[in-house]
Amino acid sequence: MTLAPEGRTEIGLAGGGCACCATDATDATDAAAPRDGAAPVEVSFGVVGMTCGNCVAHVTEELTAIGGVEAVEVELVGGGVSAVTVRSSTPVSDAAIAAAVEEAGYAVAER
């Protein structure tokens, strides 16, 4: 895990990936404000193989199921490495993030 600009944390784990369809799409975002006025913790990483909004929805659903996660933002790069930022009320482990992304059928990009 490395610290990125603006206090964000980036993770890089090995990964492959799959695509649920072959069409391109635009960016998707699922944002929420932090609860109880606490400053959110941000973790940024890449996800391999997402190609559309449906892919983003699957990854977002799995990541938001992690305890403490309050928002997920995705900058979709169809067929490439999409940038994902997770905001949470407490730190989330690399392993939990990787497991959620894998459960959705994708992989965290290797750095």
What structural keywords apply?
alpha+beta; 20% helix; 111 residues; single chain; 7-stranded mixed beta sheet; Alpha-Beta Plaits; globular; 7 strands
Structure description:
This protein has a single domain, classed as 2-Layer Sandwich (Alpha-Beta Plaits). 20% of the residues lie in helices and 29% in strands. Strands 1, 2, 3, 4, 5, 6 and 7 form a seven-stranded mixed sheet that branches. A hairpin with a 5-residue loop joins strand 5 and strand 6 (81-88). By secondary structure, the chain is of the alpha+beta class.
* CATH architecture tag: 2-Layer Sandwich
Secondary structure tally: strands = 7
**Top-tier CATH class:** Alpha Beta
Classify the fold: give the CATH topology.
Alpha-Beta Plaits
- The proportion of strand residues reads 25-35%
Biggest β-sheet description: 7 strands, mixed
Count of helical segments?
A: 2
Q: Residue share in helices? A: 10-25%
The ordered H/E elements are EEEEHEEHE
Low-confidence stretches: 1-19, 21-35
Sequence-ordered SSE layout with sheet pairings:
Blueprint: E1 2-3, E2 9-10, E3 28-30, E4 41-48, H1 53-64, E5 69-75, E6 81-88, H2 94-103, E7 107-108
Parallel strand pairs: 2-4
Antiparallel strand pairs: 1-2, 3-5, 4-6, 4-7, 5-6
Quick rundown:
By secondary structure, the protein is of the alpha+beta class. The protein has two helices and seven strands; from the N terminus they run ββββαββαβ. A hairpin with a 5-residue loop joins strand 5 and strand 6.
